[in-house]
């Protein structure tokens, strides 16, 4: 097929190759640069936004900087060479008959001289600029009126051009938005939409447009209202596909075989509960009952446990693990870092006491054994730990990703607890589950609060439990911004550290970077486009300055992820024991580190961290009876997005409110795992926050439809549509969660 002409196509469908519909070079560019190969690919490549030319403007009232559309007549034209570079410039003067004129310039487009002839009337749209006292439009969009048009026809052309919503597409340098728009128009001329996959009852219930109407109006909207109607339908399709997939998978999980791990009377769990020196919070007790009931079922539990920093999630998970051990199984707790894994190992060991030392001299024979597996274990210690895991002696196994390696074999893995699930890839979590003979129960824990609609969309096949209460005795955390316009505040911050140390407490100083030559740790970039600035502050730079300056005389140590494991462990032990006053650290302390005596945290370059990350970090203080304080040091000035983020963090400790702020200010991310698979995201229009009501409605319809027809046999077109939007790989991603 030549570039000059495309063979006539009677009708095209979503599967028709673009090579049959477009010029050869256009089809090749779309495939190469945007991975669009079929009519369906292009039709579902929705505009990112829409420009609106607006009503045409009286030329007397034009303002510099204004986006305008004017109805005018070509009065004169000149072509002249450009002074600063090669090429020529076409300059035309247009007027509306009132005496007002405007200059339009086109660069290296002398061919337009043939159509922009003197006397032609047209509509010209663009931004008004000023050049040497003359108002002008640079390379305006224009539409010339038909020379022989009647007055009514001319009025209709004017209305269509001036009121048009112009689609702006996600584009590539070799395939700009206006070329994509032209290709879409060509395809739409022959495109026959598929049979509407959405059941007519659902369309009627939710007042949704037909698919054909929606696909045409999303690209060539006849009005703002028609565009919103089209968007609503296409957003619904995205939300409904995800919710149907999750509801189906939850239904299949509820029916899949697992192994019941019921609670037993007089077992380790009962002894553990009796030994606790405090009562469970109401939330811990309630969530504990939900998990206990799940574990007793002959189908694998798949539950998400959300809890604010310090809400007691670990205790809830320990009680679940003990129930499984009582039932003859083993439990594994997967932690993202060695620091956190070691902290969990010691913390759980302290909680269990003699119940975690069965077989040892001071152990309770009715208890179990606790084992730690990390990458830094010596050969002999590793062999001993692996033997305990393999023969079942170790009822509870705590570890990092080292648990996933070949050679770590469980006798009877009954429960997998994943801490801070966002730190693990899908494949890593799934690899641990695969070590069980029958699908194990799974408890996923996170201290990063998740907005309801995000949880519904990303974790919709998990049952969700929320711990919102803090344990009795926990103190509130006060947060304040230390801004650049008040330098005295930073001096006061260091004095506050000294005051807390004098009271017998300890402090953290957090920096975004390790130091020269070391890779940065897990720091989220700011969401706004900020100008170039100095490198973020580093632990190895800040610690010596503090030792010699404002914190001179205090016992200071550095902690970051590049230190050897035994050195990190020794530093944490010293800090936990009170042998250090100040820990200058990276985000390695973000999760799980529990030193109740720490009361103050200073976060340097706080604007370099994300909202949720700041919330996690400050949760390291105020974990005892003394109140905590978190000081957010920044060079961001008032009114900038970065400063607004920090002000939001300082204003509330409500993690769910902060998670919504975080989501609003950041890219929502690909909830279907495209970042993992390297494929496109298929949530093109749906916003997890703005479309909360629609997502909730889609969930309700999905529950009802799957309840009546679990495999969607009555709706083959719908099943095919869901498979196209949420392919098998993404469905597995959602299931693995």
Automatic annotation (TrEMBL):
Keyword Cell membrane: no
Keyword DNA repair part of the UniProt annotation: yes
Top-level taxon in the UniProt lineage: Bacteria
SUPFAM superfamilies: Nucleic acid-binding proteins, P-loop containing nucleoside triphosphate hydrolases
Keyword terms: ATP-binding, DNA damage, DNA repair, DNA-binding, Helicase, Hydrolase, Nucleotide-binding
Domain Helicase C-terminal: 489-664
GO molecular function, one term: helicase activity
Helicase ATP-binding domain ranges (all copies): 294-467
InterPro entries (UniProt xref): DEAD/DEAH_box_helicase_dom, Helicase_ATP-bd, Helicase_C-like, NA-bd_OB-fold, P-loop_NTPase, RecG/Mfd, RecG_dom3_C, RecG_wedge
Protein name, entry field: Probable DNA 3'-5' helicase RecG
Encoding gene (name): recG
């Amino acid at each position: 097929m030549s570039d000059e002409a495309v063979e006539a196509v009677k009708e095209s469908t979503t599967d028709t190759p673009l090579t049959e519909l477009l010029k050869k070079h256009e089809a090749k560019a779309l495939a190469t640069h945007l991975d669009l190969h079929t009519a369906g690919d292009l039709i579902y490549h929705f505009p990112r936004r829409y420009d609106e030319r607006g009503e045409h403007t009286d030329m007397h009232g034009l303002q510099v900087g204004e986006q305008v559309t004017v109805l005018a007549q070509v009065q004169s034209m000149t072509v002249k060479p450009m002074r600063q570079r090669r090429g020529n410039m076409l300059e035309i003067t247009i007027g509306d008959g009132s005496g007002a004129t405007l200059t339009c310039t086109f660069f290296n487009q002398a061919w337009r001289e043939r159509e922009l002839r003197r006397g032609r009337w047209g509509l010209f749209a663009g931004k008004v600029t000023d050049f040497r006292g003359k108002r002008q439009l640079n390379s305006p969009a224009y539409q010339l009126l038909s020379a022989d048009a009647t007055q009514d026809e001319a009025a209709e052309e004017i209305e269509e051009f001036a009121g048009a919503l112009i689609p702006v597409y996600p584009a590539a340098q070799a395939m700009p938005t206006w070329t994509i728009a032209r290709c879409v128009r060509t395809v739409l001329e022959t495109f026959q939409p598929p049979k509407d996959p959405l059941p007519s009852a659902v369309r009627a219930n939710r007042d949704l447009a037909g698919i054909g109407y929606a696909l045409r109006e999303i690209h060539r909207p006849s009005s703002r209202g028609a565009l919103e109607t089209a968007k609503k339908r296409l957003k619904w399709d995205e939300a409904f596909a995800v919710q149907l997939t999750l509801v189906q998978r939850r239904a299949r999980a509820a029916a899949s075989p697992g192994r019941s791990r019921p609670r037993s009377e007089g077992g380790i769990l009962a002894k553990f509960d009796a030994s606790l020196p405090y009562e469970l919070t109401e939330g811990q007790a309630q969530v504990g009952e939900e998990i206990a009931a799940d574990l007793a079922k002959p189908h694998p539990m798949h539950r998400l446990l959300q809890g604010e920093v310090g809400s007691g999630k670990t205790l809830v998970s320990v009680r679940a693990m003990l129930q499984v051990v009582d039932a003859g199984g083993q439990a594994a707790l997967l932690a993202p870092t060695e620091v956190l894994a070691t902290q969990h190992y010691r913390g759980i060991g302290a909680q269990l006491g003699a119940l975690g030392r069965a077989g040892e001299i001071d152990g309770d024979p009715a208890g179990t054994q606790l084992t730690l597996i990390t990458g830094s274990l010596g050969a002999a210690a590793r062999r001993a730990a692996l033997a305990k895991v393999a023969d079942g002696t170790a009822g509870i196994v705590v570890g990092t990703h080292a648990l996933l390696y070949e050679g770590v074999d469980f006798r009877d893995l009954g429960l997998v607890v994943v801490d801070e699930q966002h730190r693990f890839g899908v494949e890593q979590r799934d690899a641990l589950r695969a070590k069980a003979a029958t699908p194990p129960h799974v408890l996923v824990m996170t201290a990063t609060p998740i907005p309801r609609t995000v949880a519904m969309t990303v974790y919709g096949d998990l049952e969700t439990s929320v711990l919102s209460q803090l344990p009795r005795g926990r103190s509130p955390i006060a947060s304040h911004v230390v801004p650049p316009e008040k330098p005295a505040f930073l001096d006061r911050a260091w004095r506050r550290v000294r005051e807390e140390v004098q009271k017998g407490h300890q402090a953290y100083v957090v920096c975004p970077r390790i130091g020269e030559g070391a890779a940065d740790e897990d720091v989220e970039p700011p969401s706004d486009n900020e100008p170039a600035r100095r490198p973020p502050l580093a632990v190895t730079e800040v610690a010596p300055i503090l030792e010699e300056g404002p914190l001179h005389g205090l016992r200071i140590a550095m902690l970051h992820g590049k230190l050897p494991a035994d050195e990190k462990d020794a530093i944490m032990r010293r800090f936990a024991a009170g042998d250090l006053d100040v820990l200058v650290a990276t985000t390695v302390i973000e999760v799980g580190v529990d030193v109740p005596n720490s009361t103050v945290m200073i976060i340097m370059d706080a604007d370099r961290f994300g909202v949720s990350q700041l919330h996690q970090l400050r949760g390291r203080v105020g974990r005892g009876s003394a109140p905590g304080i978190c000081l957010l040091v920044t060079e961001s000035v008032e009114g900038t997005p970065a400063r607004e983020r920090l002000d939001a963090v300082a204003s509330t400790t409500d993690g769910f409110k902060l998670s919504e702020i975080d989501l609003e200010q950041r890219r929502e991310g690909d909830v279907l795992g495209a970042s993992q698979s390297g494929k496109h995201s298929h949530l093109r229009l749906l916003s997890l926050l703005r479309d909360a009501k629609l997502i909730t409605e889609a969930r309700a319809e999905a529950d009802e439809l799957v309840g009546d027809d679990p495999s969607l046999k009555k709706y083959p077109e719908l099943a095919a549509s869901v498979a196209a939007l949420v392919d098998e790989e993404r469905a597995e991603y959602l299931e693995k969660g």
